[in-house]
Design brief:
InterPro entries: DpdA. By secondary structure, the protein is an alpha/beta fold. The protein has helices at about 25-30, 45-55, 60-75, 90-95, 110-125, 140-155, 175-185, 200-205, 215-220, 240-250; strands at about 1-5, 20-25, 40-45, 80, 95, 100, 130-135, 135, 165, 190-195, 210-215.
Length: about 260
């Protein structure tokens, strides 16, 4: 398993040599891009787009242009997520969750799945060289199976893909339900990426994943005092804290599926 440290700080790609996971927008908003030292993967920012607007505001052609600039100016990335449509209840129906207001799409799970597959096909057609990966969406195992079948009917053999992103599980990844979804999809021989996986989820099903990412370190740091010698209020945006958290999490995984810290 390759474990990506999720961060909002795009300049970290030239500061460390560990795998990083970053939103495309954080590169787009930067005028000057610098070559990367670290391997990295790209998040399309779908959660934020649908949470705020209930739709995608960037056209596929614009997203491809953004990805190509990143690829050429920073470094070839491991892969980039498509503009998928999450299937969480709040994304579909809208509402309030803590400080976040969800606009709601008003669409069905089946329509979100159809649009997710359709977008992948369009992006792959526009830029087959940019390592854009497919995403499976759903809420229940039968729904994820349905999404997998949609790809199959469209002529996409998910077993041959570099990695298949498993969406709509980040809030369930440490549950028995989440573990069941991962197990069911892994049984098809798919190289899965666990989106937003935290410690408990990794311990439970990390051995079934090709890769995973997590921003949990930032929340963890926000609730604690800064590291000794650090002058900021907390270490929620601190590279030193993030790397230490990552090493600790990976070292604490069961030895039978513990990844290489440098992988």
């Amino acid at each position: 398993m390759r474990f990506y440290l999720t961060t909002y700080k795009q300049h970290w790609v030239r500061a460390v040599r560990i795998p990083l996971f970053l939103k495309a927008q954080h590169f787009v908003q930067t005028k000057t891009l610098h070559p990367a030292l670290s391997p990295y993967a790209i998040d399309s920012g779908g959660f934020t787009e649908l949470q705020k607007h209930g739709r995608w505001t960037r056209a596929p052609k614009q997203y491809v242009e953004d990805l190509r600039r990143i690829w050429e100016c920073v470094a070839p990335y491991d892969w980039a997520a498509g503009q998928d449509w999450m299937c969480e209840v709040l994304i579909i129906h809208g509402g309030q969750a803590g400080p976040l207001h969800f606009a709601g799409t008003g669409l069905s799970v089946a329509e979100h799945q159809r649009r997710t597959v359709e977008n992948f096909l369009e992006l792959r057609s526009l830029a087959p060289d940019l390592r854009i990966i497919p995403t499976l969406q759903g809420n229940t195992i039968p729904e994820y199976e349905h999404c997998r079948e949609l790809y199959e009917k469209a002529g996409v053999d998910l077993r041959t893909e570099r990695v298949v992103r498993l969406g709509s599980v980040c809030r369930r990844q440490s549950t028995i339900e989440g573990a069941g979804i991962v197990t069911a999809m892994a049984a098809h021989g798919l190289k899965l990426h666990g989106f937003g996986f935290k410690t408990l989820g990794l311990a439970r099903v990390g051995h079934l994943l090709a890769s995973a990412d997590s921003l949990a370190w930032s929340y963890h740091a926000r609730k604690r005092p800064p590291l000794p010698g650090h002058t900021h209020k907390n270490c929620a945006n601190c590279l030193d804290y993030a790397v230490r958290w990552r090493d600790r999490v990976l070292n604490d995984l069961p030895a039978w599926h513990q990844p290489d810290l440098a992988a």
